[in-house]
Structures are given as C-alpha cells and as structure tokens.
C-alpha cells in the first residue's frame, strides 16, 4: 500500500509549520530529515510514530513561546497524544476536528487565551483533557464523552455555570478551582438566578423567591414588547418587499427573503463587535451595511456545496457576491473570525479573498467582489455548438494553466491546509480575464464528514485508498483541471449536479496506452497545429499530476516550472481560419 513505503509528507509539513511558529533553536536543529520511519522509529524529539505515522507530539517544559495556527493539527489524523505542558504558548486553542483519535490533550501551564474550542467536544476517544493554568475565557462546554476520566480547567478566566453533564459533574471541585466567575456544582458557589436554571432550587429565604418571580414577570413583559416590535418590523419589511417585487424576478426575491428573514432572527446580538454588522476585511474600498445588502436586488448564482451563492446589485457600488455558508462545523464566533482572517490574510494576485463576513448564531455569510467574466467551467464548456460560443484559444488556456500559482504559493508558505476543492467553477475570471482562485481555506470551516462527501480532494485516489488529503491532493486536482482545459470534457470532480462527468485521468491514460492520443484534444484547439507540441507537453505534465500515488506526483513548484517552459505560440490568422472551419 502507498502509505507503507511513504513518509507522509503532509504530516512532516504540519510538524514543520508547528516548529516555525515556535522559533526554537533546539527544534530547528533536531527536526530534520524523515519524521517517522515505517519501523516506527524516529529521530525527532518529542514525536511518537506508529507504522510511519505521527501518533504523539509531546513537547513539555521546553520554554516554547509563540502561537499555534488553528489548522496546525488538520493533517495529523493519527494523533493520539498531544502535550505542550509547561511552555509559554499563547493564542487561541487549535482546531481538533480532524484528530478523532486523540486520547490525551495536555496544554496546561501555558498562556493560551480565547475560548475552549468546541471541536474538543467531537473527540469521542478523549480520556484526559488538561487545560489548567492558562488564560482561557468564556464558559465550559458540555463535555460528556464517556471515556473522559481526567479533566482540569482550573486557574483560567472561565465564567458561567458548569454544565450539568454526568461526566463533568463526576469531577471534583479541584478541576475547576481558580476561575473567579465559575459557578454551580461541583464548585461550592451557587449561580445567581440569571445563570441558574429553575430545576436548581436554592434553599435560601423567601426573598429570593419573590425576586425570581419579579424577574420572570419583567422577562415576560420584555418578551411581549419584543414580539410586538418584531411583528411590526416584519410587516413593514414585507410591505417594502412587496413593493420591490414588482421590479425583480420572483424566484430571486424568494431566495432573498430567506436572507432577510434570517437576519431578523439574528437581531439577537451575540458579541459586542459583530452584532448584525457586516465586518469588512479590507479597511480600504467601499463599505456598506447589511441593510444596503438586503435592500438591493439579488440574483441566484447557484447552489454550491457549502450553501447558496447570490449576486447582489448594490445601489451605491459595484455588484458583490454573497455566499451563505451552511454545514459548517461548530465554531464559536472567535474561531470563525480567526479562520476568516487567516483566509483573507493570504495575499497573492491569483487568490480571491473575501471582502467581508457576517457572523451570527444562525447565519454565516462571506462576501466577495463579483468576478465579471464568470468561471473557468463556463469558459471551457459554455455555449458549445451555439452561436454564443466564445472561442477559447490555446494561448489563453495555457496562460490560465500558468496562472494557477496559488498552489505553488501554498507549498512555499507555511499554509498547511490544502485548498481541497480546486475545480473549474472555483477558478474565476475578472474583467481582464485574470485568474482568481476562490474558496481556498474553506476546508478549515467545514465539518469533516461534509468535506468527505463534497470536496474535490476527497475524491482523489489517496482519499479513496487511505483516507488522507494533502497538498499533493491539490496537485492531483490541478492535473484534472489541466485535462479539462486540454480535452474540453467535463471531469467528475468539476461536474455540476445536472452534468455527467468523466474520470478524465483514466480516460487519458487509456488513450495513451491504446495510442489514440491525437483524438483526445478539444477540437477547438486541436486545429492549432503549431501549438500541438505544447499541448502534448501539457498533457504529459497533467498525467504526472494525476499519478495514483501522491508521492509519485511532482511538487507544484516543479510542475509550474515545466508549464512555464512550454513555448507560447501566438495564434496566427491561418490557424484561426482552420479553427473556424473545424467547428
Ligand atoms: N465572486 C464570484 N464572482 C462571480 N461568480 C462567482 C463568484 N463566486 C462564485 N461564483 C459562481 O457562482 C456559482 C456558485 O458558486 P459556489 O462556490 O457556491 O458553488 P460551486 O463553485 O459550484 O461549488 P462549491 O460549493 O463546491 O465551490 C459558481 O458557478 C461560481 O463559479
């Protein structure tokens, strides 16, 4: 099996990214070469391996300072023990959603801040969680994993009532001590009536009862007033919408209504900063309010795998695209904001970062500029056989193949999370036909089971084989994209629901084996004879990228060098003529 003779490059990348964040001279010197050998030995300090894969990371008492990226553990899927005990690591806790085998997590005696990550709740094998002596804030989540035997969150800044789950209640007070604002059993501090629930009657005097009764009454009155307010507001909005509907297509309006209604539900504010507000990621450029967005007319662009997409025509500025995210993994607002900032911070001319975001309990939106020349999928396949078909010449196809620098960038930088969903509908073209890769980074927002059903990387041979995706899965997707550009056929991974896709990698391999290679090129470019050599060259590169075994695929840097070397042939008029005749 592939995993047996490989050294798991993506696991090494994850560890090297971790090391970079610490800037520790000992680790810098010690962590080099191969991290895990198949016979389970390793020369890397603090690393444990089984069958060539990382199962433990224990870096205790090393004076480590710095931060750990939220997606640092995404590619360490066999991890069972994680300890950074007694260092000076700061920042938020990382995301554990992809580490379902974790049994022991010890982050005690550090400077972690932010909230306890909700991804810890999904670790069903968890036996020990040590988070004591940090600066964690927020409330304790409802841990109730049956194997949890050790749990310590003492000496943080946690607040609120300790959830009444059987497991949490089985620990003693010492697991929670040293958090000034924690209350409820097992601590001896009773919660104030606003935090306590009604099933927890206090045995104090009647005064308390009278106070509670008054409070309930006040609450009821406030609720009734709020309800009346919402009804009036809803009717007002409905009236406004009815007036507007006369001017726009009905279907589109229906979709917009969902946005509007949800935003009303969201008027229950969450945090200080983001209550019902659009948060812009770039301080420059046009800023507008959520209300401007809802007032504007909108048009559905399609139902993506992660929610619906709308083009919104703002009255005061250029059109924007709103992506309503659904099926996200449980994320606190802090975690969501952190991920979105991490996505927006990656700067590259071919990357398409979000403009703004909106977060509330029930609604998460990402806003993008509108890419006016559409997507690569439509450019390759749209309007074929009709007078509306816009010719898509070899030179443009080649320049698009070259522009997918994003992948190269991901290799050079410490971005360890792969794109995961590279396909032609996620490659957008701006008004100058510049290539913009969108949807990168979404892998960190999506729950693993959803990602495995829907994202392109999870259709790669390595995922089918041994359940891993990595940057080499992006190389595979890139190969499939090249084949789509060369053959003009729809591959399985880019095919929208209504279209049937083919397994282009197998199809092209067969064509080469059976020597009918000449027939596989898109007729629209095959006629450009002087470019045939370049096409063949690109085909060979694509086939290397599509190798079944990730380790046999070339590095993206190497691929791009080879694509760069293909000579650009300027389309001559003669060829245009033969091209037109061939269609
Ligand atoms: N900023 C944008 N400008 C122009 N078109 C866009 C923009 N963002 C998305 N689109 C187009 O809108 C449609 C829906 O996009 P969306 O990303 O939701 O789904 P998808 O790309 O089909 O699938 P997936 O969810 O797997 O990425 C696609 O055709 C996409 O190319």
From TrEMBL:
It comes from the Eukaryota. It is found in: Membrane. Residues 295-568 form the Protein kinase domain. The chain crosses the membrane at residues 211-236. One of its GO terms (molecular function) is ATP binding. It is a single-pass membrane protein. InterPro entries: Kinase-like_dom_sf, Leu-rich_rpt, LRR_dom_sf, PRK1-6/SRF4-like, Prot_kinase_dom, Protein_kinase_ATP_BS. It holds the Pfam family LRR_1. ATP binds at residue 323. Keywords: ATP-binding, Leucine-rich repeat, Membrane, Nucleotide-binding, Phosphoprotein, Repeat, Signal, Transmembrane, Transmembrane helix. GO terms for cellular component: membrane. PROSITE patterns: PROTEIN_KINASE_ATP, PROTEIN_KINASE_DOM. This is Protein kinase domain-containing protein. It comes from Fraxinus pennsylvanica.
